[in-house]
Design goal:
The protein has about 170 residues and is α+β, with helices and mostly antiparallel strands. It is about 20% helix and about 55% strand.
Length: about 170
């Protein structure tokens, strides 16, 4: 009787694996959901740019990543590469893309920053140009992988606080 149980379990796991490996794979969908200030000091701001990913597949996705560039007043101030992603099966995943914005990196747009400070504005718009991409593998408990590829570019702007000390 024990052998019959093992055979049935192997058959069922093989069926679900076969179903998984022959299913039509869909690319995940990504949306920008906002930015959160994590920390602010006289010299820098730590910001998480937030995205939501929806994986419509029956299996999770690995080997995907986010790369980004940050712009202020149209000038590139920061680049980040290879932030790893893992998307759960049939669900939404919150993605936090961390960025440390050193105020000294705003020197290329110093005139605009000074003008904002003098006019009493408390933020500067920072644009994120993010690329969510990869050749993720669909994985299952059996450890079998199947590759799909995707690339999606999202560009959004968030208001990031300027240093508050010395504004007066």
């Amino acid at each position: 009787m024990c052998r019959a149980c093992i055979v049935i379990l192997l058959f069922l796991s093989g069926c679900s694996l076969t179903k998984l490996m022959t299913a039509r794979l869909e690319k995940p969908a990504f949306t920008y959901t906002g930015a959160e200030l994590v920390e602010s000091s006289q010299s820098r701001a730590v910001v998480n740019f937030l995205f939501s990913a929806h994986n419509p597949n029956e299996a999770g996705l690995r080997n995907a990543s986010v790369s980004y560039e940050l712009f202020a007043e149209g000038k590139k101030i920061l680049t980040g590469n290879g932030i790893p992603l893992e998307l759960k099966p049939k669900s939404d995943t919150e993605i936090k893309v961390p960025a440390v914005i050193a105020y000294r990196d705003l020197i290329p747009v110093l005139g605009s920053v000074v003008q904002r400070l003098l006019s009493g504005q408390k933020t500067i718009p920072i644009t994120i140009d993010a690329v969510l991409s990869g050749k993720p593998a669909i994985y299952s408990e059996a450890g079998k992988d199947k590759l799909i590829t995707f690339e999606m570019r999202l560009t959004k702007t968030a208001d990031i606080p300027l240093p508050h000390e010395g504004r007066n």
